[in-house]
Specification:
Elements lengths: L8 H5 L5 H15 L8 H15 L4 H10 L1 H11 L10 H20 L4 E6 L5 H13 L8 E7 L2 H9 L1 E2 L1 H4 L4 H7 E3 L7 E3 L1 H4 L2 E5 L12 E6 L8 H14 E9 L13 E5 L2 E4 L12
Parallel strand pairs: 1-2, 1-7, 2-6, 7-8
Antiparallel strand pairs: 3-5, 4-5, 8-10, 9-10
Helix pairs in contact: 3-5, 4-5, 6-7
């Protein structure tokens, strides 16, 4: 059993992450998640991982680096500490306006005629994005949860996926939801915190899953809508360039891709997509990206 040195919180906070330990940990993060951490992120990594040193009673980051190298479960904790989960309901509202007015009416009609409709929130964080997608759907089609319409919500961090699946939000977070939707699709919690809980029609539309975008995807499409917003901004350009065709491959012809406000498709990706709005794209029907149905 590995001996551990007990250290106080103040001592850990003074521990310095060396350039060599940073380089090893940053390479591990990049290999596992695709997230690029340049040298200027060393202070950020040091501050965010300090708690993990305290948890394990480690005196320095060299000991932590060895722990991560030996313990796969600690890798998941490190990823959770270093990933940013900033989100809110109906973030970048222009995407939801386009979804509501342009995209969903035809998809809902297809579903009412017995067709299949699939949407994907790729990087769902704590669930506000897929929940906003489901609320938009239900506002247009109150019986959507009874049709063959489903939303896949995925993230690489198991902790945020668990939180998203619980569907419980503080009053501050829930205040971002239009009052009419909040009253129809959320119920008051039983605790003194006044938290709100997502109602069953919303839950019935969403399936939550831990998924690393860099790994093999356990499906092949087709999706009609993919939201991947403020995710690839953390990847190097080469990783982004490899990812866009993979999204095209699982999008149906004419399917929509929504990305973050500070993200852009690589020039080679425009073989598959044409812009339809601010950081929103439509898969070109004549593109060569191969799409297969979900097994």
């Amino acid at each position: 059993m590995r001996a551990q040195t007990s250290v106080s919180q103040s001592e850990t906070e003074k521990t310095v992450l060396s350039e060599s330990d940073f380089a090893v940990l940053a390479a591990m993060i990049r290999r596992e998640t695709g997230i690029h951490m340049p040298p200027q992120k060393r202070t950020l990594m040091q501050s965010r991982l300090a708690r993990r040193l305290r948890v394990h009673g480690l005196a320095d980051f060299s000991g932590y680096r060895r722990l991560v190298e030996q313990d796969e479960s600690e890798m998941a904790h490190m990823v959770s500490c270093l990933t940013t989960n900033v989100t809110r309901f109906f973030r970048e509202n222009q995407h939801f306006d386009e979804l509501r007015t342009v995209v969903l009416p035809d998809l809902i009609e297809r579903a009412r005629q017995g067709g299949r409709v699939r949407l994907w929130s790729a990087g769902c964080s704590t669930g506000e994005e897929p929940c906003s997608m489901a609320l938009t759907l239900l506002d247009l089609c109150p019986d959507a949860h009874r049709l063959d319409i489903r939303i896949l919500a995925s993230d690489l961090d198991p902790q945020v996926v668990q939180k998203a699946a619980r569907g419980i939000y503080s009053p501050d977070r829930a205040s971002q939801i239009p009052e009419g939707l909040r009253g129809r699709f959320f119920s008051a919690g039983t605790s003194d915190t006044r938290d709100l809980t997502v109602a069953e029609p919303v839950r019935a539309l969403i399936s939550f899953r831990v998924l690393n975008l860099l790994h093999r995807w356990p499906f092949s499409g087709p999706f009609d809508v993919i939201f991947c917003r403020n995710v690839v901004i953390y990847f190097e350009q080469s990783t982004q360039t490899e990812l866009w065709p993979r999204f095209a491959e699982v999008l149906a012809s004419g399917g929509r891709l929504f990305i973050g406000h500070s993200e852009r498709l690589s020039p080679s990706a425009m073989t598959f997509f044409e812009p339809t709005g601010i950081t929103s794209y439509k898969k070109i029907a004549s593109s060569q990206a191969t799409v297969s149905r979900v097994r």
